[in-house]
Amino acid sequence: MGVDISDLVKGKPISIGDLSGRSVAIDAFNTLYQFLSSIRQPDGTPLKDRDGRVTSHLSGLFYRTASLLETGLMPVYVFDGVPPELKRKTIEARIAVRREAEAEWKKAAAEGDLKRALSMASRSSRLDHDMVGESKALLDALGVPWVVAPGEGEAQMSRMVSDGRVWAGASQDYDALLFGTTNLVRNLTLAGKRRLPSGKTQEVVPEIVSLGDVLSALGITRPQLVDIAILIGTDFNDGVRSIGPKRALAAIRRAGSLEKLSEEGKVAVPEEYVEVRRIFLEPETVTDYRLDWKRPDAEQVRRIMCDEHGFSVDRVDAALSRLSPKGASAEQFRLDKWS
User: Fold this and answer.
1) How far, in Å, CA of 21 to CA of 287, rounded?
2) What is the pLDDT of residues 136-147, one digit of tens each?
């Protein structure tokens, strides 16, 4: 889920059409979890094929990616690698939450409380190794490139933006800003009507967040933004009790850094702050990746979607028919539209 600095960040509403001709690196795990959470039956049951295998992730990935390609946007998906050791506690906590949610889902379903069942089911989503492999195979068939990060996907996204290979990164997590993503697109794969865990729907509009604008508006540097996040709490450390975004901002503005704040002796700065700061400011990334968009292999798409998982041939073909051949490289796209 990442750090919650939504109170400090203001994005600019855009349409997906505004991103036509742009290459965008998309947080794959974040996106697949969105599909697993939202594409479900009224009782919370995920979409499944005839063999009982969950296919919500494939449905979302295929139709949303096809829609993005149709608009002229050039997506590349970035998958997480090995998480830092400091993330272990967060991962274990998430597993526990999912297990509890699954138990509550089954209980609510048995009692006929469909609203609660759907809400709990959405929080129980799991992404396993097979699902990740299926997703990569589908992207290959669609001619869409993907990259595996050595560590955090958002860090690799940031590197790709800074390299000038893509124009923006796309994720729901504000961690992408901490890693240095200068242009962050939020709600890209959620655009349209979204069903919330409560069962209600809301209209979701894409937005662009400029890291430079955020830092300028707050009057801070990126290292200071990271320090603020550490005080609030990140995936790699627990925050300081009773300190939220606004108090953290005020504290760092006044003291300048966590070191000086610690010297004041008024705030119990997280002991691991140096290592957490390094994760965000000096992340492990790769540069030997290729971004080649190719024409979709319709036969392979049908083999994966229809033959293996029973999706409608007519619906899949309809989506494929709207895609025009793509073969340009990321470097050919203009990078000045939002400057």
Assistant:
1) 23
2) 999 999 999 999
